[in-house]
Amino acid sequence: MRTPTPPSPPRPRPAAARPGGRGICRGFTAAELATVLAIVAILAGLGTPDFLRLRASAATASGADRLLATLHFARSRAILSGRPVVVCLSSDLENCLGRGPQAAQGWIVFENTRAEFTPERDPGEPILRTHRLSRPAALHATRAAVTYWPTPRAAATSTFEFCSEVAGSTPRAVIVSQTGRPRLRTGRPGGASLCSGA
User: Fold this and answer.
1) Residue 68's CB: how many other CB atoms inside 10 A?
2) Which of 93, 60, 81 is closest to 173 using CA atoms?
3) In contact, 125 and 84? CB cutoff 8 Å
4) Tens digits of per-residue pLDDT, 96-146?
5) Which CATH architecture has domain 48-186?
6) What is the pTM of this model?
7) Pick from 162, 157, 188: nearest CA to 87
8) Where in the chain are the domains?
9) Which residues contact 86 (CB under 8 A, 6 or more apart)?
């Protein structure tokens, strides 16, 4: 004869479910609250004009330094390879910027195997380098493309100016001489600036 199994004792209900019981209420510790307040203060500081100016100046400086290095590379590559090398502004990082008020998103470097005097990347011409601009930097130029020919002291002149819409940020320019040597200029000269609204 089977012995009946005794019923299991009822499970105790949580304190929050008991009538008149007290639930566990956990709050923030002083360290957690201080950490949250510090993060909020940092995020609020990111929107201050001083920080925006610092960020804009850093973006223009970085872009100018990168373009300066790119132009030196293109000049050396043209002489060593024996083929023309073009550095041109681009909106899609695949083709040169056309005429008109298009905004440059960066620049490309490619071998101009057809040796055209008007630089234009044709299908099959290899892209050697690309660079996309960091915001909030903007880039303007007197000539959108510079061709380095495979002989020393042969290039097209141009001035590339990096600027920002953030007031008070320092513009920078890269100037390519007729011999192909690029140089860096910090600040605005006495003449007109290439930057819109300057």
Assistant:
1) 18
2) 60
3) no
4) 887 655 668 899 999 988 777 777 888 888 999 999 987 777 888 888 889
5) 3-Layer(bab) Sandwich (3.55)
6) 0.68
7) 157
8) 48-186
9) 74, 96, 109, 110, 111, 112, 119, 121, 145, 146, 147, 148
